[in-house]
Design a protein that fits this description.
Shape of chain B: elongated
Radius of gyration of chain B: 20 Å
Oligomer: heterodimer
Helix content of chain B: under 10%
Order of helices and strands of chain B: EEEEEEHEEHEEEEEE
Number of domains of chain B: 2
Strand order of the largest sheet of chain B: 4-3-7-1-2-6-5
Helix content of chain A: 10-25%
CATH superfamily of the largest domain in chain B: RimM
CATH class of the largest domain in chain B: Mainly Beta
CATH topology of the largest domain in chain B: Elongation Factor Tu (Ef-tu), domain 3
Strand content of chain A: 15-25%
Order of helices and strands of chain A: HEEEE
Radius of gyration of chain A: 15 Å
Largest sheet of chain B: 7 strands, antiparallel
Structural class of chain B: mainly beta
Structural class of chain A: alpha+beta
Number of helices of chain A: 1
Distance between the termini of chain A: 36 Å
Chain lengths: 92, 167
Amino acid sequence: MARSVWKGPFVDAYVLKKAEATRESGRNEVIKIWSRRSTILPQFVGLTFGVYNGKKHIPVNVTEDMIGQKFGEYSPTRTYYGHAADKKAKRK
Amino acid sequence: MSTDIVVGTLSGAFGVHGEVRLKSFCADPAAIADYTPLTTDDGRTINQLVITGQLKGAFSVRVDGVTTKEDADALRGVKLYARREQLPSLPDDEFYHADLIGLAVHDAGGAQIGTVKDVMNNGADDLLELSVPGKSDTALLPFTRAVVPTVDLDAGRIVADPPEGWL
């Protein structure tokens, strides 16, 4: 069942505090968070979060397309080392 | 930069008429047939590879020179290599994983940070996984222009500007 709209999106309070502090400082740093359950809010766009996957922090650059998703969706918890073959990486 | 890239592996006979089971590692699995001629570990060259059917996680293929089940079974576990030059050229800011893996990563000051161990994806961006000398764990760098401004494949080096305190 979907979350009731009247409650608004869920975000752990410390994530909001850290994001606000980083934005005010204007420093280029990765905000380490452990809260995979927090929703990505519009004020997070442009920041880089290090989202914990149970072992390490995975860097996530927040873009507009991610708003409304959870941080955990961008921090995979399993690693599969396949063959490189003809796979491509795009620099954004 | 390596010149041969593993693009698939043969895993024995499919049926009794000389067809072979092929597992492709390519992004588009059927594209492996476009990279012929392929070579094997023992130096054999496969000039023609015809995909005859789709199996679960594999293809059934006809390989030139293989006509019996015994010939096909002899190919079990054989890796197939394509020449790097056979891969199509890419636009700016796109790179083959095979080209990036193994490159040395330097910071803006010229000091070596580590080497690229693998390229992974977090669902939104590509990430470079670095093995850092003196550390048992790997480090991840977002593969963006801001963090990785220079990729010099000819010189075999990447210049990175990681965020403060990240590495």
